[in-house]
Design brief:
Blueprint: E1 2-3, E2 6-7, H1 25-47, E3 51-53, H2 55-64, E4 68-71, H3 75-79, E5 87-88, H4 96-101, E6 109-112, H5 117-128, E7 134-137, H6 140-146
Parallel strand pairs: 3-7, 4-5, 4-6, 6-7
Antiparallel strand pairs: 1-2
Length: about 150
Amino acid sequence: MAEDGLTFKSIKCKGMFGFNDRPTTKSRTLFWVFLSVFFITTAVAQAQTATNLNPTAFSLQIVKVKGQLIDVRTPEEFAQGHLFGAVNINFYDPQFEKKISALRKTMPLYLYCRSGARSGQALAIAQNAGFKNAAHLSGGIMAWQSEGKKVVR
C-alpha cells in the first residue's frame, strides 16, 4: 500500500504499554475487579457523606424527604424563632451526644443553628453516632431568614 510515496508493510506491533492489542482474560478480570471496587467504595463514601445545604436546598429537602428536623441552638434562641416542626436539642447540653444518638438513624436528620457552626459540628457528631443520611443548614437560621423564609415562635 503506497501513501505519500512510502510503502508500508504489515507490521505486528504491541500496544502502547508493550501489551498485545487484545486484552487477556487476566487483564479483563483485573479491570472488572478494579471497576467494581471503585464503584463500591464510591457508593459507600456517598452513603456516609453528610451534606451542607443552602437555605433553598434545605427547605426543599425537608419538605421532599420526611426526616427529623433538629434545632441545636439554646432554648432561649429556639424561643426567639425556629423552623416549623423543629425539635430543640441544645448543643451545649452535656447530654447532647447521647440525645442525638437516641434519634432514629434510619430517618434523615436535618440540623440547623444560628450561623451553621454548631450544626456543622453536630453533623460530625451525628455521623460518628451512625447517621448515614444527615444534612445541615449552611449559614444557619440567619441565612434562612435572609432569604425571606419564615420562622415560627
